[in-house]
Amino acid sequence: MFRHRLATLNTVLLKQEALWRNLRVFEEIASGKQVVPVLKSNAYGHGIQEIAGMLDGKVGMVAVDSYYEATLVLPVFGGRILVLGYIPRENDPWLKRGRIEYVVQTVRDLRAMARTGKKFGVHMEINTGMNRMGIRLDEVDEYLDYLEKHPRLVLNGVMTHLSGADEVEKAGTIRQLEEFDAVCEKVLDRGFRPEFMHASATAGAVKDGSRYTNAVRLGVGLYGVNPLSKDDEYYGELEGLEPVMSFRSKIIKIQMVKRGERVSYNGTWEARRDSRVAVLPVGYYEGVPRELSGRGFVRVGAGGAAKDEPLQRAPVVGRVCMNHTMVDVTDVLDVKEGTEVTVPVLEWAEEFGISPYELLVRVNSTIRREII
Description:
Elements: E1 11-14, H1 16-30, E2 34-37, H2 40-44, H3 48-55, E3 61-64, H4 67-73, E4 80-83, E5 100-104, H5 107-114, E6 120-126, H6 140-149, E7 153-160, H7 171-189, E8 196-198, H8 202-205, E9 215-218, E10 245-250, E11 253-257, E12 262-263, E13 269-270, E14 275-280, E15 297-300, E16 312-315, E17 325-328, E18 340-343, H9 345-352, H10 356-362, E19 368-371
Parallel strand pairs: 1-19, 2-9, 3-4, 4-5, 5-6, 6-7, 7-8
Antiparallel strand pairs: 1-10, 10-18, 11-14, 12-13, 14-17, 15-16, 15-18
């Protein structure tokens, strides 16, 4: 291990107060329902251990995709952890139990868990129309029959996944919720008392039309992204969300490029005037999409009230490289090597119509995360 903390060129800053504020927004919207933050895919690119640590003591359960992610969260979060994704059944004998619970997709998977002789908390996922994971409606009775015969498999949750969580008024989503409610009613009638019943993620949290849900899975909204379209009547309820992530880099070189000279691979950008071109130590490996070659931009200067620096826009020139991006700073004031640059991930999503989910999870996990 290094005795001293090394300086870094790229940093992801995480605003703790923004995270907590976003959580409170959804706790108010949920009106007494349990809010289960989703930390899959490295907490939507933010840093799974950092986010889990900030949520410790704030919520009773978080959700992850894989068992590997659960083991990362376990040391920094004292509550319960729900593994949403599939687990190879040969791993069952070695799975940790207690605070970690599992979505179990089939009766076959239940049998494999039961063979370990261990006690597991399980959640039953219903396929109400997403047609991705989950059991069919005609498999519910067999699933419940097996649980009745194997009391060491404890049904702690019933869930489904809406294919159009932001379209709760549409017929397909209404049908999904009706089918989910019918399953919940059957589960209760048969004497099961699952602690968690959840169908909605961020987009559906403000529109949850189920009669039985008592929890919501909070995904991208936790990180400050409003997934609803601006013409959605509920858009305003999430308008106060604040982005948690700020992705910062530094200019490592500024060079003069004469008129007619070209920049980066295959010379796709030609200077129309004598230009100053800055090199940034971020590329598509770090999370700058190659598709933004020649059309993206960054913000030069850290900004914020404390520094009162203007965030000047500098266009990307030439092709984005694996670990470098070049930007034109000819018209940017007070710029030099070492000047801080903001990589505006969410601005790119809005301006270029790229999914914010995709852009966030592209931010490489090797970049240092700092909580501010």
